[in-house]
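Need tokens for this chain, all 472 residues.
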Amino acid sequence: MASLLKLSTALRRQTLLAGSRAGSTYAAAFRTALSNEQPTEVTTLDSGLRVASESVPSQVATVGLFIDAGARYEDKNSNGTANFFEHLAFKGTTKRSQSALEQEVESLGAQLDVNTGRDQTVFTARCLSKDVPKLVEILADVVQNPRLDDADVKRAREVILGEIEQVDAGNLREVVFDHLHSTAFQGTPLSNTVWGPSSNIRSLKADDVRGYVNAHYKAPRMVLAAAGDVRQSELEKLAEKHLGKIESTFDGKAPQLSAIRFTGSEMRVRDDSLPLAYVAVAVEGCGVSDSDAVALSVASTLIGTWDRTFGGGVNNASKLAVASAHDKLCHNFESFNLTYRDTGLWGIYFECDPLMCEDMLFNVQNEWMRLCTMVTDGEVERAKRQLKTRLLAQLEGPQAICEDIGRQVLNLGRREPLHDMERRIENVTAQNVRDVAMRYIFDRCPAVAAVGPVENLPDYMRIRSSMYWTRL
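Here are the structure tokens for all 472 residues:
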């Protein structure tokens, strides 16, 4: 028996050593592959417009125009203007009618899209790589020469009001996150919704939209990005040719980000007619360029995401997912780390049965306190691998790469190479996670937003009192 035990111990030791060597070899190969990825080239033109591209061996390309303009640059009277322009952007220009624009895009087999956020507006075109010059010209025309006539404004107003009603009735996740921003950043522009209040939509006129575009769509606030079979030198020439006339100076003071203030508070919209309660709880996070951003992302990944339709259930690596599956605490949850240029929101969103709000929140806050005090090395290693996998999966194809390039260059002035990001994630330790959790989560006032039958959700002071543990 003793000899068998010795043999078993020796075999286990050899297996562990072999696994360690294999893991080390794989990690080295992985880092080498990332370091051999095509670099992102960035050039700043004389006007201040930045041009960025990454060569991807693909017949399909994506080109985008990223503009530093969104809901947080609006005031209470103009809130909704950026999104209003989104609905007018492809209605024709002074050079092309709407039908001519649509026929031209269709003949190329291309797809145009525009998306407005709280901090950025993004125009993108997906096309064959050989058609990039034509799509750059079309995007430049749309941005510089919008038609903006009264008939189009009237039709867009009706569409937007209809969409707001649909969101309020059917997309309660988005409603909750709007309420979360509204209460967390109350009194500051980051509390603005992208849609804007209905009263503003009804009163906005073509001149208001035109004034907003003229004030914000300036060369220093723009990035032209592309990914696909494109060359940086050619993209620079296209930018000079089609976007070179965009003004680089401002009439008066350039738009600036207003100071942001986080307020621990809550907003509840009780509606007992809904079948589920929709809840989000968050603390103030950090900005996108902050040194704590990666550790907070690892912490968020460690809490995880779960849906009752997922496989795994009680065998999930996330302790909160195991509890949710075993005790039927919720229908789904997702931990999030939203980062803006100067601040962020770190927290969790979940949907649960009306009588499970208290139990679900109890388990959530227990997990948060565990992050602050006793998270283990093994858990952090698993979370780091998951985070790296998710980040790389999100960069599949020219469209995702183009969007990543544009947003990073607009926020940071450069795009972080993948091997640098991988190294920063790999350097996060369990102690780092505990440290950032203590700074951002432990004994902090949270922001709470809830919609639905939320009577069972604990009152704010009880939620606040569970943001720390008294340990003797």
